[in-house]
Write a structure and sequence with these properties.
This protein is mainly alpha-helical. Helices cover 54% and strands 9% of the residues.
C-alpha cells in the first residue's frame, strides 16, 4: 500500500490511509491493550508496548495528515550519500534499525527504534572523525 500512494496528493493519501490503515492501527491498539493484561509487567515486550502506547498520538498522526511520509527511507538514503562522501572507501554504512524480539505469547515487538529521522546536512550537522565514530 505504501508504494501505491507514494507521490500521490496529500488528500488522496489521507483518504487511503483512513480507509486501509486506520482499522489496522485500531486493531493493533486493541491487541496491545490485551497483551498488557496477559504479559508479565516487567517483561521486555510489555515495556515495549507501554513505550509505544505513550507515543500513540505520534504514531497515529499520519492518519490525519497526508503530507507525512510513512517511512524515513529518503532521509536514510541522503545520510548514506553524505557518509559515502566523508569516507568513500567504506562500502557499507550502518544505519541503526529497530531491534525485534519474540516471546512465546506475542508476535515480534519493537524494543527500540534507532532510525534517524532527519538528513544530517539539512540539520546543519558537520561530521568529523570523532562524531563519525558515534554513528
Amino acid at each position: 500500500m505504501i508504494e501505491a500512494i507514494r507521490g500521490a496528493p496529500p488528500d488522496r493519501r489521507k483518504i487511503v490511509r483512513r480507509r486501509q490503515s486506520k482499522p489496522k492501527i485500531e486493531a493493533l491498539r486493541r491487541w496491545w491493550d490485551k497483551m498488557l493484561t496477559e504479559l508479565p509487567r516487567s517483561s521486555s515486550a510489555a515495556e515495549a508496548i507501554r513505550y509505544a502506547i505513550t507515543r500513540w498520538a505520534s504514531l497515529c498522526r499520519f492518519l490525519n495528515d497526508g503530507t507525512i511520509e510513512i517511512d524515513n527511507n529518503a532521509p536514510e538514503r541522503a545520510i548514506r550519500a553524505i557518509l559515502s562522501l566523508i569516507e568513500p572507501r567504506s562500502s557499507t554504512v550502518s544505519i541503526p534499525r529497530p531491534t525485534f524480539t519474540t516471546s512465546s505469547r506475542a508476535s515480534p515487538i519493537i524494543r527500540s527504534a534507532g532510525s534517524t529521522n532527519c538528513c544530517l546536512g539539512a540539520c546543519g550537522i558537520k561530521i568529523d572523525s570523532s562524531s563519525r565514530a558515534a554513528l
